[in-house]
Amino acid sequence: MSILNVKTNPIANQKPGTSGLRKKTRVFQEPGFLENFIQSIWTGIGGAQGKTFVLGGDGRFFNAEAIQTVLRMAAASGAARVIVGQNGLLSTPAASNLIRKRKADGGIILSASHNPGGPDGDFGVKYNIANGGPAPESVSSAIHAATEEIGAYRILESADVDLSEIGIAQIGRMEIEIVDPVADYAALMEEIFDFDAISALFQSGFRMRFDAMHAITGPYAKAILETRLGAGAGTVTNGTPLPDFGQGHPDPNPIWAKELVDVMMDPDGPDFGAASDGDGDRNMIMGRGIYVTPSDSLAALAANATLVPAYKDGLSGVARSMPTSLALDRVAEKLGIECHETPTGWKFFGNLLDAGRATLCGEESAGTGSNHVREKDGLWAVLFWLNILATRKISVAELMADHWQSYGRNYYSRHDYEGIDSGIAADLMQGLRAQLPDLAGRSVAGLTVSNADEFAYDDPIDGSRTEGQGIRIHFDGGARVVFRLSGTGTVGATLRVYLECFATEALDQNPQDALADIITAADELAQIEARTGRKRPTVIT
Ligand code: VG1
Ligand code: CO
Description:
Elements: E1 3-7, E2 21-24, H1 25-28, H2 33-44, E3 52-57, H3 63-76, E4 81-89, H4 92-101, E5 106-110, E6 122-128, H5 137-147, E7 152-156, E8 167-171, E9 174-179, H6 183-192, H7 195-203, E10 208-211, H8 217-228, E11 236-237, H9 258-265, E12 272-276, E13 283-287, E14 290-292, H10 294-304, E15 317-321, H11 327-335, E16 338-342, H12 350-354, E17 360-363, E18 367-370, H13 378-392, H14 396-407, E19 409-420, H15 422-439, E20 443-444, E21 447-454, E22 457-458, E23 465-466, E24 471-475, E25 480-485, E26 493-503, H16 511-514, H17 516-526, H18 528-532, E27 539-540
Parallel strand pairs: 3-4, 3-5, 4-9, 10-11, 10-12, 15-16, 15-17
Antiparallel strand pairs: 1-7, 2-6, 5-6, 8-9, 12-13, 13-14, 17-18, 19-26, 19-27, 20-21, 21-24, 22-23, 24-25, 25-26
Helix pairs in contact: 2-3, 2-5, 7-13, 10-11
InterPro entries: A-D-PHexomutase_a/b/a-I, A-D-PHexomutase_a/b/a-I/II/III, A-D-PHexomutase_a/b/a-II, A-D-PHexomutase_a/b/a-III, A-D-PHexomutase_C_sf, A-D-PHexomutase_CS, Alpha-D-phosphohexomutase_SF, PGM
Family: Belongs to the phosphohexose mutase family.
Catalytic activity: alpha-D-glucose 1-phosphate = alpha-D-glucose 6-phosphate
């Protein structure tokens, strides 16, 4: 086996976004594209020599080929060992757990997460550091800088490694350990939650439906919910990972998981419903007749955390991404704990978790997690809910009604305008930015602006500053609208408009009705329709 030193040229736009590098699959398949990026990861982290990495992906189209390329390149650059999930599969939280548990130097996760897969879909690569979490900005910048200077990459000439059997393999001088993708993760869940209480809940006739959306969580959910906890065969639907996710869009929200929503809205539907995304780090929570918004779910988990064995002594603090609703802040205030506000993307929670300043973190996009790993974790959130329901012995609808009664309700919705022209999107954001100095005190659609700014984050642990993280406009009475552009899309730009208002009465409204004035104000401020020609959002969650 010889090591090839292949000459290459920098490829433009290999800049990691909110969560790794995401591109159309066909772009990743272009000669040298994946290779350039992987070599740049090695450069960005100071070399692969002697290191141990964890490697796996969500099973989407091109996963199998890409895994082999990464293995050959790790061997060629002197990595000592790569721990890889059987058949090249690992959910994002399971990869995070393995990196931590095995004290690896880092990990590569092949996934474009909630983006559709397939030859015409998207593919992605994420690099995680030794704490198990997404590479922070400093590491991502170093990787990006390397992509702009690369002149050659190193790859081993070798046959494909058979990843179908658990055990040890070798290419060149590098050892490859093929592991069961589920075992360590399932063991971790058992340490955190009261499995006996959850099993008893299922034995009492509690019915659940988990939609794995043909993505990575199928095998995890079957092993934990059906086999270990006795939820019964058939609880997990769409449970076999498929390279194109069954032509679906593996984003667990009421639009893309409509099949589940319909079942849950039936008066005879199951007691509890949940779904997860492409790489298993997001969650959608439903009860019979009720969809729980991710922001509310995060707040409810925080409020009930001490019912879970791992959090019985309380939370050291909590954190949420800036656009996530302020429902969490109300709980933190009552508990007397710190509540941090970070930019969008899990990489900003890592320092807080490492420093013990936050135990629980979450995002409005259906990501929730804790200090058990350094990623958001879909199935963990589902088990958290089950643990609470098993202990409190009430329904999801009752639990949320009780929560809103105690804390008030933050009505919340996100309106996405996908695939708009990048130039128009940039102008729209610039238009908002230009208004910022004079917005306070102005009346818009009958609401008065109390203050407005562009969010910048000063990390309290490492002192780094991250600017340009979304424009936020607060109104008198606690309402708010936030505008930002997505950093995970692969076509044009996606404008995300996050809408929120606070109520202590009339707690049963449709969020779109409760938010009607703020929706009007958002359009007036950003001139969405005038600038984009769009009369309505592409996706409302
Ligand atoms: C989106 C979400 C963000 C999440 C990110 C990665 O980013 O808004 O909250 O962390 O996806 O999630 P953006 O930049 O498109 O708004 V995952 O599960 O797709 O890795
Ligand atoms: Co994801």
